[in-house]
Amino acid sequence: MVITVTLNPCVDRTIEVEKFQYGGTNKVLMTRNDISGKGINVNLVLQRLGIENLATGFDYQEDTKKLTGFLDRLGCRYKLEPVEGSLRVNVKIFDCATSVMSEFNERGSAVTAGNVDSFLKLLYTQMDLASVIVVDGSVPPGVPEDIYERIIEEAGKKGLKTILDASGELLKKGIKAKPFLIKPNQDELGATYGVAVQNLDDIIRTARKVIEEGVTYVCVSRGSQGAVLVSKEHVYVAEPLTVDIKGIQGAGDSMVAGFCYAIEKGMNETDLLRHAVACATGSLLHPGTQLCEKEDMEAMLSKVRIVEV
């Protein structure tokens, strides 16, 4: 089973405009609201892929019916820690002319140290049921920056594989606990080590530093340039697929779900990357946070081209 951790769930308000006019008036083509959060998105895709999963995180009581109602409709099991406050709202403006998304993300409602301790106790009691733990996304005010490091360390004691998808100090500290896989983009990888990451050689060189710290796999998403998977002995490059992009929100979360699917199925390195890229690409076919469907993944698998360098 895959357990996801979403400490800063949200409502994604996606607005599509024909061509974004900065400082001007924009005609809205479509608006939709989706319950989201990186871990929640992973749960959604795993449900569609038929992989047993459990959602964990904070449940903001002012909007509890929105979050738990969504998970109930999804058919996803959950164990959530109740906290005061409301779900943050993230505004996503998608420019149809350029396929560029501009995001305005709120920080989230603050939680207490007691809330954090209670959540960790809840999570640790569920770990014996899991094989993979996904820790990802931002955290609300009140959550310490070493939270993912602590979770990964505890998971490691139980022999579980962990996937870390975060940025900034959450990523830096999380790496110290030696997760199984991390999934930064180029900019996040470079910022973590204070270096410029502009091309494939830079990615490989910096990813090797991460591997030396005990991480098994580093997957670097490169947007329109595809993705790179680096391990101690191999480097694989997945070339991008050309598709009609309807939305980019959640493609990275779909990629994480693809990794989880392949791990749960006991697949090899190239198939880990193949399924991750197939899911990420499948997600691009849908607007808003209507993420990858199983048939999308299956349709894309044969089209993913992977080369070892």
UniProtKB/TrEMBL annotation:
Residues 6-293 form the Carbohydrate kinase PfkB domain. It catalyses: D-tagatofuranose 6-phosphate + ATP = D-tagatofuranose 1,6-bisphosphate + ADP + H(+). InterPro entries: 1-PFruKinase (IPR022463), PfkB_dom (IPR011611), Ribokinase-like (IPR029056), Tagatose/fructose_Pkinase (IPR017583). GO terms for biological process: carbohydrate catabolic process; D-tagatose 6-phosphate catabolic process; lactose metabolic process; small molecule metabolic process. Keywords: ATP-binding, Kinase, Lactose metabolism, Nucleotide-binding, Transferase. One of its GO terms (molecular function) is tagatose-6-phosphate kinase activity. It comes from the Bacteria. GO terms for cellular component: cytosol. Pfam families: PfkB. SUPFAM superfamilies: Ribokinase-like. Pathway: Carbohydrate metabolism; D-tagatose 6-phosphate degradation; D-glyceraldehyde 3-phosphate and glycerone phosphate from D-tagatose 6-phosphate: step 1/2. Signal peptide: none annotated. Its EC number is 2.7.1.144. The keyword Transmembrane does not apply. Belongs to the carbohydrate kinase PfkB family. LacC subfamily. Belongs to the carbohydrate kinase pfkB family. PANTHER family: 1-PHOSPHOFRUCTOKINASE-RELATED, ATP-DEPENDENT 6-PHOSPHOFRUCTOKINASE ISOZYME 2. This is Tagatose-6-phosphate kinase. It comes from Clostridium porci. The lineage of its organism: Bacteria, Bacillati, Bacillota, Clostridia, Eubacteriales.
